[in-house]
Amino acid sequence: MNTAWTIAGSNSSGFSGIQADLLVFKNFNVHGCSVITAITAQNTESVNSIYHLPNEQIIAQLNALTSPHAIKIGMLGFDAQIFLLKDFFSKHSYQIILDPVLFSTSGYALFKGDILHYISCLKQLFPYITLITPNIFEAECLTQQKIHTFYDIKKAAQILLSMGVKNVLIKGGHFNEKDFSQDLWTDGNEYLWLATKRHQVESIRGTGCTFSSAITACLANQYCIKDALVIAKMYISQYIRTHRFQYHSWAMEQPDLPCVSFSPIENESPAFPACGGPIGLYPIVDSIKWLELLLPLGIRTIQLRIKNKSGLALESEIAKCICFAKKFNTQLFINDYWQLAIKYQAYGVHLGQEDLEYADINAIYHAGLRLGISTHSYFEIARANLLKPSYIAFGPIFETNSKIMSFAPQGLTQLKYWCQLLDYPIVAIGGINKDTFLQVYDTGVDGIAMISAITHAKNPIESAKEFLTILRTTN
Fold it and tell me: How far is CA 78 from each of CA 118, 137, 206, rounded to the nearest angstrom?
């Protein structure tokens, strides 16, 4: 079991601070350790008193613990504690998430002395911070900039980066927007907005603390930062929607999955048309010769992925394939070449993640085409969720040699998780063969994409027939 530390105050009400952090760590199967900086007497209405622990006790706690996989810092009461931590972190290399809490929800200052002096001291930690997670008010205090617009949020993030932190997440829960709750993450190179629909609920305590704790737990569990943000957003969205913690790692309902966008979301995207019935066996081929071999067998869905043609030869091949597929009433998806798919009125387009930034998604939608999107991770599925595609392809499920992959095999358990969570049809892809075909189908997928198991088979027609027979006998 991986380990995470929380360095924060004890909240007697249990809605934030050490108590909330340890609960979140437990829910993510992370062993939680604590370094208590202060003991507070508080409830949901007010903070009655704060006792800041002496530095000797904090040092003793730090030295008693073994190295963590990630650290969350919450409430720090005064400058001496900050400089103590600065000295400690200068001798170690950790993933550190700083949630710069300044005031309680009821407005009680959680630090000693003047706020500007305290913030000035807090900035001494920034060069050691992997990710800082202020809310809107805290970002205003840290940057001394008022935030009224999305542009202001981005500007504040840039200022925080200039102060030395590696990543910034400005939590938008308190931003004055009716329809969505949107958080901005950036590392200085990318700017991504994570958005979920707002829920009309009564005031809930500790959401910001819980969000940051969930990110910490995910980083401790070796998720990359983008996946950690998406999973944590799912977790906190579930908490806000249901008003209770779930005693499993994260959400199991699609409303909790955020949308990821390169710009603030102003309106919800319309959903792409659904495919006409189950996708089933889904061969991926590179020429009309394969369509001529496979479509007479009764295959309903097929993808054309051409990598060895360009110019007029490419366009001619795509045009012929679209025309041929229509004769068999087959759902033909064109990989990548969305302009030609629109021009020759293909059934649909399939796009990889690298193509989403450049393709004209609105043009594809208004042309009436279906859209499939490749995904390999939580972050990529959240990115696809923004566009509401006709299906989501997920993989690689197993080891594959069809293309160079930067993602490890996802496995059947993760595939089943997405089939249960998402309302989208799921297409499994990657390393699937006749020995694993039925196992993949039993996860609840809508389609199974096949490349080598058909195109590299000794007898491709017989191989395709075998897979079709399996599907027919199991339905």
Answer: 7, 20, 21
Looking at residue 343, its pLDDT comes to 98
Long-range contacts: 117-125, Cβ < 8 Å, 24+?
A: 117/79, 118/78, 118/79, 121/79, 121/82, 121/83, 122/76, 122/82, 123/163, 123/164, 124/82, 124/83, 124/86, 125/73, 125/82, 125/85, 125/86, 125/89, 125/98
Phi, psi of 67 (to 5 degrees): -60, 135
* CA 88 – CA 83 distance, rounded (Å): 9
pLDDT band at 112; cut points 50, 70, 90 = confident
Question: Can you give the length of the chain in residues?
Answer: 475
> In this structure, are residues 198 and 7 in contact, taking their beta carbons and an 8 Å threshold?
no
Contact criterion met (CB below 8 Å) for 332 and 283: no
**Nearest alpha-carbon partner for 160 in 209, 190, 126, 114:** 126
pLDDT tens digits, one per residue of 59-90: 999 999 999 999 999 989 888 899 999 999 99
Around Cβ 2, how many Cβ atoms within 10 Å?
16
Instruction: Check if the beta carbon of residue 31 is closer than 8 Å to that of residue 22.
Output: no
Give residues with Cβ within 8 angstroms of 472, minimum separation 6: none
Q: Which amino acid is at 241?
A: R
